[in-house]
Automatic annotation (TrEMBL):
GO terms for cellular component: endomembrane system. It is found in: Endomembrane system. This is ABC transporter substrate-binding protein. SUPFAM superfamilies: Periplasmic binding protein-like II. Residues 1-34 form the signal peptide. It comes from the Bacteria. The lineage of its organism: Bacteria, Pseudomonadati, Pseudomonadota, Alphaproteobacteria, Hyphomicrobiales.
Amino acid sequence: MSRSSSVSGTIRKASRRLAMAAAATLALGGIAQAELLLPEKDELKFGFIKLTDMAPLAIAYEKGYFEDEGLFVTLEPQANWKVLLDRVITGELDGAHMLAGQPLAATIGFGTEAHIITPFSMDLNGNGITVSNEVWEMMKPNIPKLEDGRPQHPIKADYLKPVVDQFKADGKPFKMGMVFPVSTHNYELRYWLAAGGIHPGYYSASDISGQISADALLSVTPPPQMPATLEAGTIHGYCVGEPWNQQAVFKGIGVPVITDYEIWKNNPEKVFGITAEFAEKYPNTTTALTKALIRAAIWLDENDNANRMEAVEILSRSEYVGADAEVIANSMTGTFEYEKGDKRDIPDFNVFFRYYATYPYYSDAVWYLTQMRRWGQITDTKPDEWYAEVASKVYRPDLYLKAARALVDAGQADEADFPWDTDGYREATAEFIDEVSFDGRTPNAYLSQFPIGLKSGETVSESGVTGG
């Protein structure tokens, strides 16, 4: 990576290990006051996808937070989300920047089966939905306008529905891209479409395309390929993280119509995933890496985002996101550009530490599980207790708080910055685009509220929905 050559890295590792050994000797002699946790495994390789929300990994590396914990980390971009997950499962990667749905889906056996956990939630918000210029021109007459003539936000999928209906009347499929079947992007796009009366399709045990009964056909496109795929006309829109919505604006090929902040205010996004086996085998290492990531998140948000331009410069490097700094800054520094020239303030578009962003809430996990059930990836009705049980197997606030406590005791974080007394569930919220209330403690009651989506007792086959 950029901070050092392999030779200087080797020297640094040796020096660090000597220092740690000396500190350990002092601790054993009763001289050191604080507990010193030596990592069981100190050379680690972490994977990521080229998105701005991998920032905590890049900052923990560049600012030396990993090394402060005695960890010598290599960061490696991965080709796609499936490859990334598979390599964590096989041990080729020690951990990775993951879609929040990936540890949950793997643990319940949807797709590749493995027990993946997360001790750290990486961020809130950060995604958008972009449509092609053609679709935007068709949508615009339906959208209310402000006094200055700009579109009134948030832009609901209600305004897209006449366009989808026109495509259908013309015998043309309306196609949209998302990054992975268990991605936040898939669920956010489905949520937005369904709230506007556009059916995004179901999954079934025998048909994992997710297009059963669909008005809009959703399929997988890797994030960096989204703009080119849109430009080629293969898809008519997409949901993706940054900088790939802003890239469409800069290239003049599409218009971001809504951010996920407007779909669900302060929604959880990526997580850092490791295998349960890794956490059990290397408990000190797990605490150390979590400490480093928390420190990086604090740095990213501190002093009202004062460090964001430095973060933009780091992320723009080819070894990380590799997009122009100007494109990354367009959303990373508290603004978001919709139609070209229509830049608006969204200070919380990217949140890395505020609002307890890094705490792995059980209720966040439950929301993802409800969406898997809503669209048929979970094929059968499950009791509320099942959701709670899965959430507690995958999301590990105990590991998070252990790392947080160590940081507070060392004077590297403030006591008030962590939710020590929570039961792991956020308060119920209706801050969604459709104002439907979500309480993670009652997932089945939540699912019953939607006009579009599976209800209790219903299942999906290729011919449609049965039961209920």
